[in-house]
Amino acid sequence: MQNTTPNEIKPEMTFKKSRIKTSAGDKIISVITYFIYALFAFVCVYPFYYVIINSFSANNLSERGKVLLYPMQIHFKNYVSVFTLPGILDAAKVSVYRTVIGTVLTVIVAAFLGFMFTRNTLWRRKLWYRFVTVTMYINAGIIPWFLTMKLLGLTNNFWGYIFPMIIQPFYIVLCKTYCESVPQALQEAAEIDGAGTLRVFFSVMLPVIKPIMATIAVFAAVNQWNSFQDTLLLMSDEKMYTLQFRLYQYLTSASSLKALVSNSTSSTAMMASLASAATATSIRMTVTVVVVFPIMCVYPFFQKYFTKGIMIGAVKG
């Protein structure tokens, strides 16, 4: 019997790269799929692109609809003119204040209630949870809502923007689902060390549920920033108008936009020339960009939290 050493054992094994062969039908389906998605992306992006390029293109060309694919005769005079519109700066302040304050309160309340609805120590927690979630499906209507707001003294009141939007059942459901995915051992360890409910929430749960809070913050901020119907129903004082409501006014009365710019308070010759060059279309496009741009800047910073914040807790087991 011939002895062999490990060095003498030379197994002949050849590895061949395997390639998945795609048929002509699969290639055609892939091309059609890419084309449909590209077309869908174009349909979503082009309206924003169209508004942006028209806001700093030549006003006379924009008025005649000549600016379609690329900006023509670029200038930024329209943005200087827009900020001379009556009440535009006050409306911007109101929008910023309601967005910041409303978002912070909405996120904190949603996180706290979502956390409390997972606690077995909460008295009748299932009853309260159903009481909150049922409001997602049952709505009394605009008139009872307006009468309630009027009785509470929230007409022509800044807090009329904040209080009705603090408790959002959908956000509470998201936070509750997320909190249920957090191991109970974290809370039990804190309770063994003597932490109460508030201490457990602020010291243990808040650092863990940051992804869902970031997701809710984006949703709440967009909702607050884009809302204008509550201004239409509750506010008659022009000092309480929001930027979105001003945009709504400008879009519904486009023919008078140029007159608004021409009659704005400005004493310099430069401002006068800018106002005379402005058109209804150019001001409308520019105001739209000014209103939409801030909230568009928020998305890239919070986009990474969307999938993780929404999907976590969706799969059990």
Unreliable spans: 11-15, 265-276
Q: Which structural category do the helix and sheet elements fall into? A: mainly alpha
According to DSSP, the number of beta strands is 0
Element-by-element helix/strand order: HHHHHHHHHHHHHHH
Q: How far from one another are the termini?
A: 57 Å
Percent helix, as a range, is 55-70%
Q: By CATH's scheme, which homologous superfamily of the domain at 86-252 applies?
A: MetI-like
Largest sheet: none
Rough outline = globular
- CATH domain topology of the domain at 86-252: MetI-like fold
CATH architecture of the domain at 86-252, please?
Answer: Orthogonal Bundle
Give the helix tally. Answer: 15
Give the strand content. Answer: under 5%
**CATH class wording of the domain at 86-252:** Mainly Alpha
In angstroms, what is the radius of gyration?
Answer: 29 Å
Mean pLDDT: 77
Description of the molecule:
The protein has 317 residues and is an all-alpha fold. Among the domains are: 24-75, no CATH class; 86-252, MetI-like (MetI-like fold). 64% of the residues lie in helices and 0% in strands. It is built from 15 helices and no strands. It has helices at 24-55, 59-63, 77-82, 88-116, 125-133, 142-151, 169-180, 184-192, 197-208, 210-226, 229-234, 243-252, 257-262, 269-277, 280-311. Helix 10 runs antiparallel to helix 15 (280-311). The radius of gyration is 29 Å and the shape is globular. Residues 11-15 and 265-276 have low confidence and may be disordered.
